[in-house]
Amino acid sequence: MRIVKLTEDTKKDILTNLLKRSPDNYGSYEETVKNIVNDIHSRRDTALFEYTEKFDHAKINADNVRVTEAEIEEAYTQVDAKLLETIRKAIVNIRTYHEKQKQYSWFDSENNGTLLGQKVTPLAKVGVYVPGGKAAYPSSVLMNVIPAKVAGVGKIVMTTPCNAEGKVYPTTLVAAKEAGVDEVYKAGGAQAIAALAYGTESIPKVDKIVGPGNIFVALAKRCVFGHVSIDSVAGPSEIMVLADETANARYVAADLLSQAEHDEMASAILVTTSEELAKKVSEEVDGFVKELSRKDIIQKSLDNYGYILVADTMQDAIDTVNEIASEHLEVVTANPFDTMTRIQNAGAIFLGSYSSEPLGDYFAGPNHVLPTNGTAKFFSPLSVDDFIKKSSIIYYSREALEAVHEDIIDFAEAEYLTAHANSIKVRFEK
User: Fold this and answer.
1) Can 227 be counted among the known catalytic residues?
2) Binding residue per annotation — 361?
3) Alpha-carbon distance values, 192 to 30, 55, 158, 180 (Å)
4) Is 237 assigned a ligand-binding role in the annotation?
5) Is 413 annotated as a binding residue?
6) Is 191 assigned to a binding site?
7) Are 274 and 244 in contact (CB under 8 A)?
8) What is d(CA 188, CA 131) in angstroms, rounded to the nearest whole number?
9) Minimal CA–CA distance to 47: which of 184, 202, 183?
């Protein structure tokens, strides 16, 4: 990995380079995605099945687009019993964590005849997109579905690509069943997002769409936003490790590569105050890359967006961490809990040598759907909050309104909104 001395100029260059990975910079795909979305909107199932045959080489129709109970039962026979046990353990951890996020309606009444409150209502229908293609992602099923279930969502619909034989990954189906998905449909890409957003003869329209995907999925989610809610327009994965001289170079190297293997556009960055650690990590990375199965993807990721940054002081390192605002941040310092208190921007923070990023991806409980590409400065991980909506409650008695009605009239007239003022006046006409 390249080792760079951290200065204001190098930090600026790195930030500029990382921002190139944003979905906002893929305008060449936008027209294609827009055409697909509009086609689904107008021709519905007909267009959906045509795109499925074109992109997934599968002949899907109204009779087989929905995954049947028999297909799910078959999937259980194809999933290793030990993996199923692990999935169930992970579900317990994820549910337990998210149950602590639940919000409840509240009301506050006063003796003067007023009552104010907030009514919390779960969304009625949510669509979960799960990628197919080259790999299965049962962990994504769990992370997107379980907080929706905890929130009390009425119906959860999942779409995921099938193979040319019309089959869905067994682990995806098993995870969906275990997590509590109500319906699963064989649809992928931008066309699946559009189907969830607008509805077709086969796939129901939902209120919100969540779940990861490639650039076409990300742009389609952005395209339909407003017709439905979405979780985010996510960019490629990223990891940052903040370390001092106490860190284990072999552990750090392994953790950096855990995200570099995702995608050629993934980012892996070490920020350290130790030049010796920087050199050791670079050597360990080189050794690991030769051994790992996705070495070509990893190497391109490191060449494009991999850095080892050497800072003069820990404060300089922390300032850089906060500026880059990484999706995943590992803090491997002599006192990681103290260091953590100075971190302002990160999607998920992993503390100490034995809290590596994959622990959060699969098992610990906190959600692995995280803000990317610097958006951790203002976005949060996916949570139960993403699957509820809040309504304000206002009640005033006649006496309570009479006490303040002139104030409201004054406010309305100051804004030249005489109908607003009149709405109050008529209640106190002599």
Assistant:
1) no
2) yes
3) 16, 12, 10, 20
4) yes
5) no
6) yes
7) yes
8) 7
9) 202
Which domains, and CATH codes, for the chain?
3-22+235-363 (3.40.50.1980), 25-230 (3.40.50.1980), 399-428 (no CATH)
Does 391 appear as a known binding residue?
Answer: no
Residue 214 assigned to a binding site:
yes
Residue tagged active-site, from 328, 330, 357, 368:
328
Q: What percent of the chain has pLDDT over 70?
A: 99
Q: Integer distance in angstroms from the first to the last C-alpha of the chain? A: 82
Q: What number of residues does the chain have? A: 430
Rounded to whole angstroms, how far apart are CA atoms 307 and 271?
8
98 catalytic per annotation: no
Please give the share of the chain, as a percent, with pLDDT higher than 90: 88
pLDDT above 70 for 43: yes
* Pairing outcome for strands 208-210 and 183-186: unpaired
| SS3 label, residue 138 | helix
Q: What is the mean pLDDT of residues 37-51?
A: 97
Q: Which of 178, 238, 284, 327 is catalytic?
A: 327
Q: Rounded to an integer, what distance in angstroms lies between the CA atom of residue 240 and that of residue 19?
A: 15
Rounded to whole angstroms, the Cα distance separating 267 from 255 reads 12
Buried b (16+ CB within 10 A) or exposed e, 45-57: bebbbebbeeebe
* pLDDT surpassing 90 at residue 127: yes
Are 268 and 298 within 8 A, CB to CB?
Answer: no
pTM of the model: 0.92
Residue 29 counted as an annotated binding residue: no
- Side chain identity at 51, as an amino acid letter? Y
Strand extents, DSSP E, 104-262: 106-109, 114-122, 125-129, 155-160, 183-186, 208-210, 229-230, 238-243
Whether pLDDT at 37 is above 70: yes
What does the pLDDT look like over 95-105, one tens digit per residue? 999 999 999 99
CA 277 – CA 140 distance, rounded (Å): 34
Who wins on pLDDT, 420 or 259?
Answer: 420
Torsion of CA 35, 59, 186, 24, to 10 degrees: -30
Q: How confident is the model at residue 263 (pLDDT cuts 50, 70, 90)?
A: confident
How many CA atoms lie within 13 Å of 234's alpha carbon, on the beta-carbon side? 25
Condensed to tens digits (0 to 9), the pLDDT of residues 192-211 reads 999 999 999 999 999 999 99
Tell me the angle at which helices 215-224 and 189-198 cross, rounded to the nearest 10 degrees. 20
